[in-house]
Amino acid sequence: MKRLVGAVLLAVSLGGPLAVAQAGASGHSTTVVATTSKGWVVSLAVAKTTVRTGTSIPATITIVNRTGHSATVEGCLPNFDFFVVLVNAKVPYQDLSGDVACSTPLRRGTTVIHTQINAIYSATTTAMNPDLPIGTYHTVVNWPTGPAHIPEPGRLYIRVVG
Q1: Cβ neighbours of residue 158 closer than 8 Å, sequence gap 6 or more
Q2: Are 29 and 22 in contact (CB under 8 A)?
Q3: Can you spell out the DSSP letters for 93-110?
Q4: 35 vs 39: CA distance, rounded Å
Q5: Could you give the CA distance from residue 133 to residue 54 in angstroms, rounded to a whole number?
Q6: Sheet containing 83-87: which strands, arranged edge to edge?
Q7: Which of 40, 61, 68, 109 has its CA 20 to 30 A from that of 54?
Q8: Between these two residues, 29 and 132, which has the higher pLDDT value?
């Protein structure tokens, strides 16, 4: 975990979106993309960049609030906010957000969100064929709205295999 934090801090020091591969203590590789803006650092990390069609891989979104005050975004965790989907030219992004009558506070410091990336179509895209076709996709995070202007994490490229 210390090495992952080091990779994120390296990305932060360089500014903007940056993909970083960092070996962990067990020899496994973690791929991280981090984005920064004034007062914010947002990263998306996955343990691997290959997934079998119809399955999922764990992902972690880390939001570091260095603004000096808490912020509120519209939407409720874990229903739709911060949901990660795979898209490409043949499988477009389907926005999952709707009107939600609640909000999520992001306190000063670090908020860690554990989620997963599913190699299936969203239910609104193709209900009869849930598995994604084999190919290369990129991540899109269903990002909440709000006045805080929190940057979205950059893209990670994920290969879906049979």
Answers
A1: 46, 49, 50, 51, 57, 86, 117, 119, 136, 137, 138, 139
A2: yes
A3: --------S-EEEE-SEE
A4: 11
A5: 9
A6: 18-23, 29-37, 40-46, 56-65, 109-118, 83-87, 135-142, 157-161, 50-52
A7: 61
A8: 132
Q: Is the pTM of this model over 0.85?
A: no
Domain boundaries, the chain: 2-161
Structure tokens at 33: 């993309």
Please give the structure tokens belonging to residue 112: 């860690």
Euclidean distance between CA atoms 71 and 146, whole angstroms: 8
| Helix, strand, or coil (residue 162) | coil
Rounded to an integer, what distance in angstroms lies between the CA atom of residue 162 and that of residue 159? 10
Listed as own residue / partner, the contacts of 67-71 with beta carbons closer than 8 Å and 24 or more positions apart are 67/38, 67/39, 67/40, 67/108, 67/148, 68/39, 68/108, 69/108, 70/105, 70/106, 70/107, 70/108, 71/105, 71/106, 71/146, 71/147, 71/148, 71/150
Of 83 and 15, the one with more pLDDT: 83
